[in-house]
């Protein structure tokens, strides 16, 4: 048994000589001189460690060619009211049939749409240079709001609708409207924001979270009247933020250096996914989704452990700019591979569970090895 334990080394993602598998074990073939037996160990480990990690999610990729998507460079995605809304570098694409086909409203066509948000029949799309587009009929008709209408800037990054309040993260501050976008008040560093470029925004009641470009996370608990800013001094992984999501007292912040998680409303943070550029984050209970430069990370235990999905698992591209989940469906906005739609038939297995099953299989393989080498 001592020889068997020498084959296992915790903390690695490599199984067998020269093969990568998800999990927390490394399988060594030290002491096995027969090539066939070495191959057997690698195959056993590969089956055990590879299949469970991806068997729960089946991916389908929707592109310009197969669905009419406006562009294969998708920057954001959301699903609401039976429709899928995808913002891309060529406008907004809307699907009413689960992503099989898309239509592209002419009002937003050709405009780089950095973020899209939908609530009921209200749809909001923010662009890189053309302001905010608003639809109140599910994307059929659109009106355009720009700096001439009081918006902080025509260059926008994020948008969120909460009740009667509409929030737009612009290159010149956080613009807030209480009348559906007709009039605006813009909050800037003069009001306490950490930076005027707002890459992400989330609001719930009187709580507002603004993810700034280099000034950390600015938080208001009184509807935007006053602000406090949290930075690396409070534990943020990085002050360059790309997105934010909140659920109750839990706050999730996408940064240039991993995902920062707070369980006390943003007072303190712990960090995970270190050294990863995290573009977007979404939470559904204890299940977290993080869109990163190198894959879609999913955690089913609040961020303690993660499973990474890439093109090897069926995604259209491994760069994930936006992510949204609803029911058993996962929507991943990819940087060049279109919109990847995953259907989860069962919870994503945790690495610890995979390791337990893998350990059992390797014990059997070890016993067979002893018999074969006698």
Q: What is the helix content? A: 10-25%
- Number of separate strands: 27
Shape: globular
Overall pLDDT, averaged?
Answer: 84
Whole-angstrom Rg: 23 Å
For the biggest β-sheet, the strand order reads 1-27-26-25
Low-confidence stretches: 1-55, 347-374
Biggest beta sheet attributes:
4 strands, antiparallel
What is the distance, rounded to the nearest whole angstrom, between the alpha carbons of the first and last residues? 15 Å
Number of helix segments?
4
In terms of structural class, how would the helical and strand content be classed? mainly beta
Q: Strand content of the residues, in percent?
A: 35-45%
Could you give the topology of this structure?
Layout: H1 2-6, H2 35-55, E1 57-62, H3 64-67, E2 74-80, E3 83-88, E4 91-95, E5 113-119, E6 122-127, E7 132-135, E8 143-145, E9 156-162, E10 165-170, E11 173-177, E12 185-187, E13 198-204, E14 207-212, E15 217-220, E16 228-230, E17 241-247, E18 250-255, E19 258-262, E20 270-272, E21 278-284, E22 287-292, E23 295-299, E24 307-309, E25 320-326, E26 329-334, E27 339-344, H4 351-372
Antiparallel strand pairs: 1-27, 2-3, 3-4, 5-6, 6-7, 7-8, 9-10, 10-11, 11-12, 13-14, 14-15, 15-16, 17-18, 18-19, 19-20, 21-22, 22-23, 23-24, 25-26, 26-27
Helix pairs in contact: 2-4
